[in-house]
Amino acid sequence: RANVCPTREFLARGRQEMQIKSCWHCLAENVSTAHMIGCCPAGQDARIKRHNQICELLANEARKKEWVVFQETQLKDKHLELYKPDSIFVKGDQAFVVDVTVRYESKPASLANVAAEKAKKYEHLKDRVQELTSANTIKFMGFPLGARGKWYHGNYELLTELGLSTSRREKVARSLSRRALFTSVDNVHIFASQ
Question: Could you tell me the superkingdom of the organism this chain comes from (predicted)?
């Protein structure tokens, strides 16, 4: 969490010309904690597993509140390009298109920026989502979690819209944040052990 993992980048601070900073698994020039947790191919399977676990936990919360959940539905835009939003939650004439991501929190606004980026990614598919769900009100949302356990406050909006009580929202937030943090630690172990 403190970003002091002894990576090659960290160990090279102050002596750039003398230290090797490149990744021993891929061709990346700098091995940082963010690289180990979020980019390196060595941890890709673990990252996919983490992502799917978080999506499933979120989907289960929605199902408990009687939302219909479409997971990784394939939608084509007008240029026939394929998109797969993580989840589409539907209840009555309301739908939420949600894209989950776990990102390394490098700046205070990192998670807010990625939430906006993820929401915008699928907005052009509004007509396709409407055809699939028959919903009149469609909202596109990013659902970012910090790789070091930071909770993005904007995620409460989705949990509130799904109908979770205040206490349940807090429990879900803690659970998802812990899952992101612990699986990030697992990614570091996988990276270091190979």
Answer: Eukaryota
Q: Please state, in angstroms and as integers, the Cα–Cα distance from residue 186 to each residue in 8, 42, 116, 144, 179, following that order.
A: 18, 12, 28, 19, 10
Which pair of tokens denotes residue 41? Answer: 């191919």
- Residue-wise pLDDT for 103-161, tens only, equals 988 788 999 999 999 999 999 999 999 999 999 999 999 999 999 889 999 999 999 99
Instruction: State the pTM of this model.
Output: 0.84
Q: What is the architecture of the domain spanning 44-192?
A: 3-Layer(aba) Sandwich (3.40)
As to burial, measured by CB atoms within 10 angstroms (0-12 exposed, 13-18 middle, 19+ buried), residue 17 is exposed
Task: Provide the residue ranges of all domains of the chain, joining segments of one domain with +.
Answer: 44-192
Compute how many other C-beta atoms are within 10 angstroms of the C-beta atom of residue 23: 22
How many of the other CB atoms lie within 10 Å of CB of 142?
26
